[in-house]
């Protein structure tokens, strides 16, 4: 426990496979006791019926009648079955594929037919990951992902692969490692959506022959070594500072061009300079809420005569 705490303090992710993490959570699944209860009920009913029949025929309860009733009940439990709403049952006859049954009630011939597989056709969620996987630029990273998939063909899931659940998990993990190995660490961190789509297509190609379809793949977490995180952070800060300086230079360039244009206007018209001066003084007084001492040479511009002259000059200029 102490080592685990120290790893969290250093910012390291515990090295647990995605499947183990999901299995460590509390599982909440639909009840699977229905078939068992039905089988027990059928066995009891058949046993009582056979025992009652033996009593009627023999006029008493005998050991032979009891044994026969037990055998009949056992055969009944091997013959009558039910499949849940989300299940497809693959039935073999003498070792060969016979049919796919379910959901609901179905029958098999004892000792001749066997239930080879009960395929769950609900959406399955499988966690998988790639630990200490090298990227194309030789950086070891940890990636966790979640796979959403379902069985659409129970026959293929039974005949084409030994254990379809584990096979899907291993295929997803292999595809994830291969995708990471073909990309740089920056591409893995930035192109999450593209990586999800790529993984879905690759896994779908491998699992479609098993009667399994992949609905989606989602990258949950990407853990980069702490040393590289500092380097990438410094690089990102330098890039942002570079962009900020470039933007500032562009703004300074635009401002200088505007100032040159304004200077040309002021150079050709002294009255424009005086009006600009008056405007600046007004803004300073309004902003400060105080008083400003204006030289006498400038105060003449505030007189009514000067203002009328300025207006006439502007009209003539137009």
From TrEMBL:
> To which protein family does this belong?
Belongs to the band 7/mec-2 family.
Which InterPro entries does the record match to this protein?
Band-7_stomatin-like (IPR043202), Band_7 (IPR001107), Band_7/SPFH_dom_sf (IPR036013), Stomatin_HflK_fam (IPR001972)
Q: Report keywords, A-Z.
A: Membrane, Transmembrane, Transmembrane helix
| Pfam families reported in the protein's UniProt record | Band_7
Q: What is this protein called?
A: Band 7 domain-containing protein
Gene3D superfamilies cross-referenced by the UniProt entry: 6.10.250.2090, Band 7 domain
Q: Which CDD domains match?
A: SPFH_eoslipins_u3 (cd13775)
Q: Name one GO cellular component term.
A: plasma membrane
Q: Give the transmembrane region(s).
A: 36-60, 66-84
Q: Which organism is it from?
A: Adlercreutzia caecimuris B7
Domain Band, by residue range, is 78-236
Q: Does the keyword Ion transport apply?
A: no
The record's annotation in SUPFAM superfamilies points to: Band 7/SPFH domain
């Amino acid at each position: 426990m102490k080592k685990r705490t120290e790893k969290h303090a250093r910012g390291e992710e515990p090295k647990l496979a995605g499947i183990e993490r999901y299995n460590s959570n509390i599982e909440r699944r639909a009840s699977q006791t229905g078939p068992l209860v039905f089988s027990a009920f059928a066995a009891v009913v058949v046993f009582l019926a056979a025992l009652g029949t033996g009593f009627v025929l023999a006029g008493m309860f005998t050991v032979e009648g009891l044994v026969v009733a037990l055998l009949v009940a056992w055969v009944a439990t091997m013959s009558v079955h039910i499949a849940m709403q989300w299940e497809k049952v693959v039935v073999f006859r003498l070792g060969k594929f016979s049919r796919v049954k379910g959901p609901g009630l179905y029958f098999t011939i004892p000792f001749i037919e066997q239930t080879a597989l009960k395929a769950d056709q609900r959406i399955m969620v499988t966690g998988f990951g790639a630990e200490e996987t090298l990227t194309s630029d030789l950086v070891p990273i940890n990636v966790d992902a979640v796979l959403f998939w379902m069985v659409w063909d129970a026959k293929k899931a039974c005949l084409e692969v030994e254990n379809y659940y584990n096979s899907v998990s291993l295929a997803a993990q292999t595809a994830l490692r291969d995708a990471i190995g073909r990309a740089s660490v920056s591409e893995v961190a930035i192109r999450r959506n593209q990586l999800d789509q790529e993984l879905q297509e690759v896994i779908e190609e491998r699992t479609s022959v098993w009667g399994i379809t992949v609905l989606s793949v989602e990258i949950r977490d990407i853990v980069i070594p702490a040393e590289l995180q500092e380097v990438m952070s410094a690089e990102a800060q330098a890039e942002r500072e570079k962009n900020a300086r470039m933007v500032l230079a562009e703004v300074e360039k635009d401002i200088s061009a505007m100032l040159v244009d304004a200077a040309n206007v002021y150079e050709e018209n002294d009255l424009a300079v005086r009006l600009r001066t008056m405007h600046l003084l007004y803004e300073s007084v309004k902003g400060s809420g105080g008083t400003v001492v204006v030289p006498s040479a400038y105060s003449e511009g505030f007189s009514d005569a000067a203002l009328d002259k300025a207006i006439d000059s502007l009209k003539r200029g137009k």
